[in-house]
Every structure is written in structure tokens, then in C-alpha cells.
Amino acid sequence: GAGVSQSPSNKVTEKGKDVELRCDPISGHTALYWYRQSLGQGLEFLIYFQGNSAPDKSGLPSDRFSAERTGGSVSTLTIQRTQQEDSAVYLCASSRTGRLGTEAFFGQGTRLTVV
Amino acid sequence: AQSVSQHNHHVILSEAASLELGCNYSYGGTVNLFWYVQYPGQHLQLLLKYFSGDPLVKGIKGFEAEFIKSKFSFNLRKPSVQWSDTAEYFCAVMDSNYQLIWGAGTKLIIKP
Fold it and tell me: Among residues A19, A53, A90, A109, which one has the fewest Cβ atoms lying within 10 Å of its Cβ?
């Protein structure tokens, strides 16, 4: 597709379950970002992939969160043993490069609700 | 840690009023500055950006923003808003570590 695609668009899960969120970036984009937006909060950086470099995981809030990017394209964000405070919209973005001066394109997000 | 501050969380204006949304950031190095907009039910999209050069940048839909380095500010302006400008507006800063740092957003409601 032409844009960043995220799936599912909505996910309701029970506390304690694991969830996987998927992001398909724009073809050819080497940089991929995961963010989350909680109620009343600004966008919170989670993780950043740039090409084949080691990802910047400095934003992951706990060891229950992990992410992979296979083949430099699709990325999966996994949240293990979900908690209610994990409820948020998880946004993925990609950009042509990760360098200053390049625009990030966002997906529509996955709204995660932990009940 | 770097931070981005948007002063108003909610703004309500009447059509044709002038708009200014504040954005201040804390990073002292080279930055790229962005304003993103999220219309109801849609995903984030870029409104305008500043990388270098003229500190007054013009974006889509009549928006502009001015980078004032001495004040660490990048305020968004529009001389006359329309009902269709109802949306949430996010200021973002990219620092030299290529990390985008976001403000909390400002919800703008335009009364017809």
C-alpha cells in the first residue's frame, strides 16, 4: 500500500494476556518508530529501528515490551502479560531515512484496551 | 531529558478568529521542528516543518509557524480559522539522536 499500515485497528484483551501489534511501513523506508498515546498524554516514544543497526529501545517502559523488525520491513510490537495501564493507541511511523530532515509518515494506530 | 511543552490542552475559538498555539522545547542543540495534525477519525499528518533557513515556515491550509531560537519556541499560527480546523495539533522536535519528542497535543474546537 501507499501508506503505513497497522493491524489490528482495535484490540481488546484480558489483563495478563500477550498481544502482538503489527506495522507495515512504507516500502523502502529504512526508519521505523513505535509510539504510544495514552489518554491525556503526549505521544511517548517506544522504540526506533534504523536499517540494520541495533534498535534504540530506550523508550520501552518495561521488559514486558519488545519489538522486532524482520527483513528491514514489517515490525511487530509484543506486549506480554498486559496490564490495564498498557491501554493506549499504539502508533507506528516510518521515514525514508532516520536522518534529520526527513518526514515521518504515521499509520492509523492500534487502539489497545486491556480489561 | 528533552521535552516539548504545548501550553494549551484545549482551545475553543469561533470561526474567523485568529489562532496561535504555543510550543516550547528544551533541547539546546540542532533540531528539526514539526507540527502534526490529527483530524477526527484520521491518522496524524504533517502540517509543516522547519529544518533550516527562513524561521517563518508556511504549511498546508494556511498555517504557519515561527522558529524563535532564543526562546526555544515554534508557535503555530493561522490568521482566520475555519470549522474544518477542528482537530488535535501536536508539536514535535527531532533531536540529533533522531528521536522524535512530542508535546501532549492541543485539542482545537472551532465553533461554527
Answer: A53
